[in-house]
Amino acid sequence: MFYRPEDGHGLPHNPFNAIVTPRPIGWISSRSADGINNLAPYSFFNAIAYVPPQVMFSSTTTKDDQAEAKDSVANIRETGVFCVNIVEYAARDLMNITTEHFGKEVDEFERAGIIPAECETIDCPRVPDAPAALECKLTQIVELPGKMNRLVLGEVTGVHMRDDCLRDGRFDITAFQPLARLGYRDYGRITEAFELVRPDE
Predict the structure, then answer these.
(1) pTM surpassing 0.90?
(2) Does the first or last residue of the chain, that is N or C, have fewer Cβ atoms within 10 Å of its Cβ?
(3) Which residue range is the domain that position 43 belongs to?
(4) Is residue 38 part of a domain?
(5) Flavin reductase like domain location, by residue (predicted)?
């Protein structure tokens, strides 16, 4: 099968998200200029550089009560900071609560029953029990083609790692089984890892 996206795919559901998988989930926490905490998952998320460490996520939907994109993007534009919380399999139901389209006045931490912790290097809440959390300062927001598609780029200014996820000096993802987004409404979890050594190493 071949299709041009501009012509449509002719399938019951869009296959694009199922093709580009698995995708890590950035559980993005932010705070509005008015002090309202926000927590929302984004599966268009990844790390993009080592030195300095940098991450990205993109927002692809709009909200009736925001002039621009979603609450996360609006908050980050206002404050210049955000935190990426890594989602473990055990937190899948809590994360799913925060996928609901709440009004901008709603604190998703409260809705999910999560008591936020404060970040160390930025004025922003974080998920205290997350396996890892990356405190970030905004570097730029890029307007992408399409209605309200926004790419948010940030530099990592602080890193939290849960002690039980550190084994023999390594951050062991099998200790918490990261949740990954697949296509449609499907998710997966990483339960094992293997190593490949480059031929020239």
Answers:
(1) yes
(2) C
(3) 22-189
(4) yes
(5) 18-173
